[in-house]
TrEMBL record:
Domain Cytochrome c assembly protein: 84-287
Identification of the protein by name: Cytochrome c assembly protein
Domain Cytochrome c-type biogenesis protein CcmF C-terminal residues, every copy: 306-607
Species this protein is from: Archaeoglobus veneficus (strain DSM 11195 / SNP6)
BP term (GO), one: cytochrome complex assembly
InterPro entries, A to Z: CcmF_C, Cyt_c_assembly, Cyt_c_biogenesis
Stored Pfam families: CcmF_C, Cytochrom_C_asm
Length: 617
């Protein structure tokens, strides 16, 4: 047995002990041995993680996982990122994250005799046990080959980017954190206690890291895959979006429950659904049952994930049935109903994405393309942004005068902007989008001006909403008004006319090192005779055991309201001409700005208010 497997086995035994002792803590004081067991589990998982990392740096290619995802030339950064490049390493990282979250939950409580925390830790530790069992069986990262190869297959060249070095661990961190609100919701409801205040920070942290992971994945797709887009509605992309949508709905529902004691049942259900979707995301990614450019391949443990989803749902329903009287409450105010409307839209968006993602499982030969998603998600996004704008103009007291005062200015500005866009471009959808953009944005800005600076949660929420508004208009521009020209054939020293643009192939260069061979083209881009920029798109041929590793490195000229995007598709055998794909992507900068504002809003919401800091002093 490998030393890494010994650490995994010790972690499993420690986790079993911890879960059992936490259950005992519900009725009696067993917190000291519970802490020891949990810290032991964390220590052994950390040791297993470091052992696998050591094998990567030692180039121990007799370890199958190291052989499959590294080679002797791999740089330090990508040697580290190879740790989570496959299913075994990613699951190990996820389990480690979850134990860290459990440890934080345990030691962050002022009252270490809290029965809700005890039961929640028992539940979340059961999830750790589930991962430990998989790591020791079907997803063992320490399996060895019968021989020691001189070199490894190598990391997929598409993963050799800074974005892909950090995208998976941030996604997994978000996934792992979603377990805590689920466990707290089950435990607190069982004891008829409130779980919202205790779980909010864990939900925001997890939601923020999931947002960062999705942003990194979108940016990677945009600058790496060479098709001019940042979101292809691939099943694995969708899988990470699903829990983000339900977690976003839950964050809004928590506000209503805390202030008005409403939406208790919906919030409880969302905590369970979000956890289920996190497990489903792993199932979709790792089972290979749905065709995806990201899938890790066929895996026999898919049934285990489905069983975990079924078990979590069954436990949630059982606790609800036992404590139905705990969910009493009603919605009375206008603002509460508007927030519920926002939540419904987010859930409808989740349902349409889920249906499109899983359709191939239930409908033979089903092919769901981006047109399905565009037709459904853009109207839902539009409705969401409109409701956000109305919500910003209505406070909890439903002040009619405030609503009229805010809305008349934002509506007039939005109408003027929309008319201007229509008269300039004769684009009806763009005009409507711009009008909605300004209406919602200005309502938020007006209300943000009078918000108490100490109210970090409200400020953070508004910053995130403003980010979503920018994301909305950026997505609308990039998806609906993108210009694509492919293939574009350009002879050496000559130009090709594409729309109002002229692409001039000035020259070629060749570079080679021990890892790769590059063909670099120099292309000047003109619009109406004016130089927009000089680009260097290239083809990269990697020298790996797998012979089909050719990557096109794109070049992007970013301008305030559009990107000029060019990718090299190939070169003729005699080198006399090259083939390119050229895209004009409007407003894509708003996508990145909006995404960063959404993340910033989550960070601001986590910051302690001045009142809280004064109380702490």
């Amino acid at each position: 047995m490998d030393v890494g497997e010994v650490f995994l086995l010790c972690s499993l035994l420690s986790s079993i002990a911890a879960s059992f002792i936490f259950l005992r803590c519900v009725e009696e004081d067993r917190w000291k041995p519970a802490r020891i067991a949990l810290l032991s589990s964390l220590t052994f998982l950390t040791a297993a993680l470091l052992t696998l990392l050591y094998y990567f740096f030692a180039r121990d290619f007799s370890v199958q996982y190291v052989f499959e995802y590294s080679d002797i030339h791999l740089s330090t950064l990508y040697t580290i990122s190879a740790l989570w490049a496959g299913r075994e390493g990613s699951l190990l990282l996820w389990a480690w994250y979850l134990v860290i979250f459990n440890t934080v939950l345990l030691f962050s409580q002022k009252n270490h005799k809290d029965r809700v925390v005890a039961l929640a830790l028992a539940i979340s530790t059961l999830v750790v046990i589930f991962f430990n069992v998989l790591l020791l069986t079907s997803s063992n990262p320490f399996v060895r080959l019968d021989f020691r190869p001189p070199n490894g297959i190598g990391l997929n060249p598409l993963l050799r980017t800074p974005e892909m070095a950090f995208h998976p661990p941030t996604i997994f961190l978000g996934y792992a954190g979603m377990t805590i609100p689920f466990a707290l919701a089950i435990a607190a409801t069982f004891f008829r206690e409130n779980w919202i205040k205790l779980s909010r920070k864990y939900l925001i942290v997890s939601w923020a890291f999931l947002s960062i992971g999705i942003l990194l994945g979108a940016w990677w797709a945009y600058k790496t895959l060479g098709w001019g887009g940042f979101w292809g509605w691939d099943p694995v992309e969708n899988a990470s979006l699903l829990p983000w949508l339900t977690a976003s709905a839950l964050l809004h529902g928590m506000i209503v429950e805390e202030r008005k004691r409403g939406l208790k049942l919906l919030n409880y259900a969302l905590a369970i659904i979000t956890f289920d979707l996190v497990i489903l995301a792993t199932f979709v990614t790792r089972s290979g049952i749905i065709s995806s450019v990201h899938a890790f391949g066929q895996n026999p443990e898919a049934h285990a994930y489905l069983a975990l989803i079924a078990l979590a749902t069954a436990v949630g329903i059982t606790v609800w049935a036992l404590r139905r009287d705990f969910f009493s409450g009603s919605l009375e105010g206008v603002r509460e109903k508007l927030i519920l409307g926002n939540m419904v839209i987010l859930l409808l968006s989740m349902a349409t994405v889920l249906l499109g993602t899983l359709a191939p499982l239930f409908i033979p030969n089903a092919s769901v393309d981006r047109h399905y998603y565009d037709r459904l998600e853009i109207p839902l996004g539009t409705a969401l942004v409109v409701l956000l704008g109305i919500c910003a103009a209505i406070d909890w007291r439903a002040d009619r005068e405030k609503f009229i005062r805010y809305s008349k200015y934002s509506a007039v500005v939005g109408l003027i902007a929309g008319v201007a866009v229509y008269l300039s471009f004769k684009a009806t959808i763009a005009a409507i989008g711009i009008a909605i953009f300004f209406f919602s944005l200005l309502n938020h800005v007006q209300d943000l001006r009078i918000v108490d600076i100490a109210n970090r949660r409200k400020i953070g929420g508004y910053v995130a909403h403003i980010g979503l508004i920018f994301l909305f208009i950026g997505v609308m521009g990039a998806w609906l008004y993108e210009e694509s020209y492919k293939p574009v054939t350009i002879e050496y020293g000559k130009s090709a006319q594409v729309g109002s643009f002229e692409l001039r192939l000035v020259g070629f260069d060749v570079k080679e090192d021990e890892e790769k061979f590059c063909i670099i083209s120099k292309v000047e881009i003109y619009e109406n005779g004016e130089l927009q920029g000089v680009t260097y798109p290239k083809l990269i041929f990697y020298k790996l055991m797998r012979q089909d590793r050719v990557v096109s490195s794109v070049e992007i000229i970013s301008q305030p309201f559009r990107d000029l995007y060019i990718a090299m598709g190939g070169v003729s055998k005699d080198g006399s001409r090259a083939y390119f794909e050229f895209y004009v992507v409007p407003l894509v900068s708003f996508v990145w700005l909006g995404s960063m504002l959404i993340i910033a809003g989550g960070i601001v919401a986590l910051m302690p208010s001045r009142r809280a800091m004064k109380r702490a002093e």
